TrEMBL record:
Keywords: Membrane, Transmembrane, Transmembrane helix. It holds the Pfam family DUF3108. It comes from Caballeronia udeis. The chain crosses the membrane at residues 28-45. This is PROLIN-rich signal peptide protein. It comes from the Bacteria. Residues 82-97 have a biased composition (Pro residues). Residues 76-98, 384-416 are annotated as: Disordered.
Amino acid sequence: MPFSLLRRRRAVFGASSDNLPADHSLRWVVWLAVLLVVLALHWVAGRWMERNRSASNPEPAEHVPVQVELLTPKPVAQAPTPAAPPPPAPKPVPVPVPVKQAEPTHAITTAQTEQAAQAAQAAQALQAAQAAQAEQAAQAAAQAAAQAAAKAASDAAASQAAAAAAAAAAANGDKFSVPPSGELRYDTRINGVMNQVGNIHWINDGQHYEMVVSIPLPFVGPFVYSSKGHIDAFGIAPEQYSEQRGRRAADITVFDRTTKQLVYTKTPNNQPLADGAEDRFSVVMQLSSLVRGSPDKYKPGVVRQFSVADNDSNEIWPIETVGDENVQTADGNVQARHFTRLPRREGDRRRLDIWLAPDLGWLPVRILQTEPNGMQIEMLWRGKLQPPSATPGQSGAGTADASEETTPAAPGSDKP
């Protein structure tokens, strides 16, 4: 091979090998720049979502509670039962008047005289029997009239006593109006991200109630919370509360009002049952019933205490009235009264906020629970802004004017 050709090839290959490291370094610089740009865009998008995820319903601002009045459970005011009108007195039985026999004006025979005497004796006996029956009927009528008068007097006294008791209850007790039956549906969000639709199945027949809160969760199974019982002198009175999370067995709490004990299936430790005790879901309807009965009583700063039972313990919940606020729902803005549960103990970072809307018959339009780790679980009214239709016999016991979906963790739950 000629020497000139060999020098030319070395010059070409030498130049190529010298440029190879520079091209390789340039590619790495380009890929690194692209990666930094992608990371920067993700960071900007995350910050934007964090700032705008709940702009319509911002998180309640921290505030220092100003206590105006501390409310404790009291017997609810009951309307007096109208006294039944006294029964009409029986009509007196007319006494037959004996008819005087006309004396004969002509001569009669001895046989006729005897027949006439027998007929007169029979007539006298009949008259005596009729007089005795009339006297007995008159005595029975007088006795019935006396009994009716005594019953009327007793009913009047009972009516006066009931009216006095109702007046005393109205003066010292809580006005109360249980919401009517209805199927309530809510949009649910976890940390601002839309979840599946939840619902509250609520039944109230005036003497008993049933509340079933359920929400389906993918891959986990439905979360179902159930509360049922009756309505007594303190309002909604649970008899049994149960909660079932996914495919796990349900935990049940029994409110034994005969022995005044709380009995749990999760633990063998029974606890005393206080008057007006609620469970974690009935307390929402109890608050709604109290506000429905006397909305002007719950002004900003007023704190009411509730005894609330869990599936293995019970404690006092202080719930404060914050004030009236606007809540943005899928159907538009609605005015609602904001209530918040104050810390139950030192270092309690869990928070529960409830908004009750007067346009919905003071039913909950929004519920927001903040966990100690910062996770937020929200329920927001879904559908038209109108309360369930009232049906006869579905008002709260002891009211004169009573007419008229959920979260993976129960409100106020300390459980994961």
